[in-house]
């Protein structure tokens, strides 16, 4: 009986030592090493890719946001992002989970297409897919070059700017595929709007 108790005690202490060592490695040392490497090699990304304007934080280049007027409606003076099932709330990120053949989703897309076309003064046939569909996260900071170009004339009219200058701004904001083959060409809405603000000063 005593031998059994000693054996059990020895195994218990061994398990506790293993728990302590693994907790230190995986709960303290590993996070510190990863954080140190991230801060050293990728400080901008590690700190949330925060974008500043005149010394004030205005958002993150990794997270989309709304560009609304005081009444909560899309502001015609700014380029607008794609729809978001989470309304760009990082604490509630996610998709609508509606199936591609969902009647509710199809009706929502039809409504969005009509709204985007009317807002930008273009035919519904010119409205691109990303203007009427949300991303999986609901936080996508990018839109397609096609959607950005569709908005350029509306933004120019709202700000009384030269349309060609705004279109050039959009063309300069287009980023190519990652590594030349991953994803699609894209435009970061926050960065484009900051460039627009500089143009309009």
Automatic annotation (TrEMBL):
Q: Name one GO molecular function term.
A: ATP binding
Q: Which GO terms describe its cellular component?
A: plasma membrane
Signal peptide boundaries: none
Q: What are the entry keywords?
A: ATP-binding, Cell membrane, Ion transport, Membrane, Nucleotide-binding, Potassium, Potassium transport, Transmembrane, Transmembrane helix, Transport
Membrane topology annotation: Single-pass membrane protein
User: Where in the cell does this protein reside?
Assistant: Cell membrane
How this chain assembles, per its entry, is: The system is composed of three essential subunits: KdpA, KdpB and KdpC.
Question: Which HAMAP family does its entry note?
Answer: KdpC
Q: Which family does it belong to?
A: Belongs to the KdpC family.
General function of this protein: Part of the high-affinity ATP-driven potassium transport (or Kdp) system, which catalyzes the hydrolysis of ATP coupled with the electrogenic transport of potassium into the cytoplasm. This subunit acts as a catalytic chaperone that increases the ATP-binding affinity of the ATP-hydrolyzing subunit KdpB by the formation of a transient KdpB/KdpC/ATP ternary complex.
Under what name is this protein listed?
Potassium-transporting ATPase KdpC subunit
Organism the protein comes from: Wenjunlia vitaminophila
What taxonomic lineage is listed for the species of origin?
A: Bacteria, Bacillati, Actinomycetota, Actinomycetes, Kitasatosporales
- The primary gene name is kdpC
């Amino acid at each position: 009986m005593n031998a059994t108790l000693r054996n059990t005690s020895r195994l218990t202490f061994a398990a506790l030592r293993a728990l302590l060592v693994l907790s230190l490695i995986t709960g303290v040392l590993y996070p510190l090493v990863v954080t140190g490497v991230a801060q050293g090699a990728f400080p901008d990304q590690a700190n949330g890719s925060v974008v500043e304007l005149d010394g004030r934080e205005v958002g993150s280049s990794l997270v989309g946001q709304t560009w609304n007027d005081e009444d909560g409606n899309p502001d015609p003076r700014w380029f607008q992002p794609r729809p978001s099932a989470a309304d760009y709330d990082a604490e509630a990120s996610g998709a609508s989970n509606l199936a591609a053949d969902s009647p509710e989703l199809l009706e929502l897309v039809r409504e969005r297409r009509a709204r985007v076309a009317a807002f930008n003064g273009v035919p519904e046939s010119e409205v691109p897919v990303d203007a009427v569909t949300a991303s999986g996260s609901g936080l996508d900071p990018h839109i397609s070059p096609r959607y950005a170009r569709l908005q350029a004339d509306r933004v120019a009219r709202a700000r009384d700017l030269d349309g060609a200058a705004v279109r050039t701004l959009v063309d300069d904001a287009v980023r190519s595929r990652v590594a030349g083959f991953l994803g699609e060409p894209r435009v970061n809405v926050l960065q484009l709007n900051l460039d627009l603000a500089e143009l309009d000063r």
